[in-house]
């Protein structure tokens, strides 16, 4: 069956007249009559009862009208989806994001996407950055927002969005907060840290190693970075988290920074994609948005939290 024949059939059924339907679709009456005849021949049944100039649907015609409408709406919806997909404003983008990035960068991104591309869907995968980088490498995510310090520039392209500092933190009543602290003072403490494969853990371990000190003593090793602040709030354990998490309203708001230059890690958060990998139009739309406006958007968003 031809979709145009179905459309003309629907118009005749709606208007109940070849004359009015022909006027509506700007076709001749014979053209519409031939469309009806082709459908009736194909389906081997009458679709209309002719009553003078009136055209009334048979039971088979009523059933076909229902199906024809569903088909037309499906075709129109598919057309909108394909057009939106081609423009990058519809479709699915698989986005990997670490806990810090998810908390501080994603809200503003989602707000902008809802405004500019409401039909675009984010398939959000959160986790530790080492696992997310591997997911990007193997093609299980399209894009990644993560720290850029451990990204292989030969494999991935990056675009910086936000500067961040990772610091040593403790509960508000920790004894170390009452004195001037040196790096060696931290050696006697126990820590809550992520696995050694995580970039922040490697950086902290290297800091102790480069100063010829024992590595941090691990009391809890966790793959839940968001849980780390809560695990030390009422203990004497130390942790190593983004300074952003110490702001009011966030998980580490009750924690205090142990100020020490040697244990302050400067890092950049940004967009990461595989070099020369295919980007779907929706993913390309997100990349273009972040490259054009991402840094300003996220900087402004984080400034509002201060």
TrEMBL record:
Superkingdom, natural source: Bacteria
GO cellular component, as recorded: cytosol
Record InterPro entries: HTH-type_LysR_regulators, LysR_HTH_N, LysR_subst-bd, WH-like_DNA-bd_sf, WH_DNA-bd_sf
Domain HTH lysR-type as annotated: residue spans: 1-58
Keywords: DNA-binding, Transcription, Transcription regulation
Pfam families per record: HTH_1, LysR_substrate
GO molecular function, one term: DNA binding
Gene3D superfamilies found in the cross-reference section: 3.40.190.290, Winged helix-like DNA-binding domain superfamily/Winged helix DNA-binding domain (1.10.10.10)
SUPFAM superfamilies on file: Periplasmic binding protein-like II, Winged helix' DNA-binding domain
Family note: Belongs to the LysR transcriptional regulatory family.
Name the UniProt record assigns to this protein: Transcriptional regulator, LysR family
Organism whose genome encodes this protein: Pseudomonas segetis
């Amino acid at each position: 069956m031809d979709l145009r024949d179905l459309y003309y059939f629907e118009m005749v059924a709606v208007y109940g007249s070849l004359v009015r339907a022909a006027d509506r679709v700007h076709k001749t009456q014979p053209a519409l009559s031939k469309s009806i005849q082709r459908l009736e021949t194909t389906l081997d049944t009458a679709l209309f009862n002719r009553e003078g100039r009136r055209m009334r649907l048979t039971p088979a015609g009523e059933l076909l009208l229902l199906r024809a409408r569903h088909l037309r709406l499906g075709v129109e919806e598919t057309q909108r989806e394909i057009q939106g997909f081609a423009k990058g404003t519809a479709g699915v983008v698989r986005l990997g994001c670490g806990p810090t990035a998810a908390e501080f960068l994603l809200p503003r991104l989602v707000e902008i996407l809802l405004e500019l591309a409401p039909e675009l869907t984010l398939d959000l995968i959160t986790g530790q950055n080492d696992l997310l980088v591997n997911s990007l490498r193997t093609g299980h995510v399209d894009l990644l927002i993560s720290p850029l310090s451990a990204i292989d520039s030969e494999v991935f392209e990056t675009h910086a969005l936000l500067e961040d500092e990772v610091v040593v933190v403790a509960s508000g009543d920790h004894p170390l907060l009452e004195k001037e602290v040196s790096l060696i003072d931290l050696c006697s403490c126990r820590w809550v840290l992520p696995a050694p494969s995580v970039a922040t853990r490697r950086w902290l371990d290297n800091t102790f190693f480069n100063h010829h000190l024992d590595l941090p003593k691990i009391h809890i090793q966790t793959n839940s970075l968001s849980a780390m602040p809560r695990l030390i709030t009422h203990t004497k354990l130390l942790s190593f988290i983004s300074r952003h998490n110490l702001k009011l309203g966030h998980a580490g708001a009750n924690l205090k920074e142990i100020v020490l230059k040697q244990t302050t890690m400067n890092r950049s958060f940004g967009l990461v994609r595989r070099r020369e990998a295919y980007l779907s139009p929706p993913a390309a739309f997100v990349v273009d948005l972040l490259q054009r406006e991402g840094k300003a958007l996220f900087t402004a968003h984080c400034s509002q939290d201060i």
